[in-house]
Amino acid sequence: MAAPRTRRARVARRRARRIAASGSDLTGAQWLLIREAWGRCAYCGAADVPLQKDCVLPISRGGSYTIENVVPACGRCNASKCNTEVTSWMRRRRLDEPAFLLAWALISRELREPRDADATTARTGPASA
Fold first, then answer.
1. Which of 27, 54, 91, 128 has the most other CB atoms within 10 Å of its CB?
2. Neighbours of 65 (CB within 10 A)
3. Rounded distance, CA 119 to CA 98, Å?
4. Are 74 and 52 contacting, i.e. CB atoms less than 8 angstroms apart?
5. Is it the case that residue 75 has pLDDT exceeding 90?
6. pLDDT tens across 35-66, in order?
7. H or E element: which one contains 52?
8. Cα distances (angstroms) measured from residue 30 to each of 25, 41, 66, 81
9. What CA–CA distance (Å, rounded) separates 128 from 96?
10. What span, in angstroms and rounded, lies between the C-alpha atoms of 110 and 112?
11. For 13-19, what is the mean pLDDT?
12. What percent of the chain has pLDDT over 70?
């Protein structure tokens, strides 16, 4: 059976190829950790809404689905940001850019630390008592 030739199908195939080529490695467990760490939309702070994965640096601009680049976003923020650079988009929407950047840095570091500690233990072996 041939692949559908609709515009939507072509766009979906092109996006899937870009994601595969971007080096994306976000697992389902990591996405759950990200959602728990933020607890709300990372941009506008909306709570009790369905959250979607959003790349701070869009895939079309060289980003990828990694634990450092993905934040939870409500559908409204995700759709309006599209593939725009995050700081200019936040300024245009009059959102709190400094608060987002600080939270993003702190949460990203917090989520990376366990993985970095595991990598160090794997290289050096467990500490002897």
1. 54
2. 19
3. 31
4. yes
5. yes
6. 999 999 999 999 999 999 999 999 888 888 88
7. strand 51-55
8. 10, 17, 9, 23
9. 47
10. 6
11. 79
12. 84
Q: Which of 78, 64, 76 is nearest to 30 (CA)?
A: 64
Contact 11, 38 (CB under 8 A): no
Query: Torsion angle of alpha carbons 68, 9, 76, 28, nearest 10°?
Result: -40
pLDDT, residue 1, reads 56
Q: How many CB atoms are located within 10 Å of the residue 108 CB?
A: 19
Report the Cα 82 to chain-centroid distance in Å. Answer: 13
Q: What angle do helix axes 86-93 and 97-124 make, rounded to 10 degrees?
A: 150
pTM: 0.74
Q: Is the pLDDT confidence value at 108 over 70?
A: yes
Q: Grade residue 112 by pLDDT with cuts at 50, 70 and 90.
A: confident
Enter the DSSP assignment of 128.
P
Chain centre distance of CA 1? 34
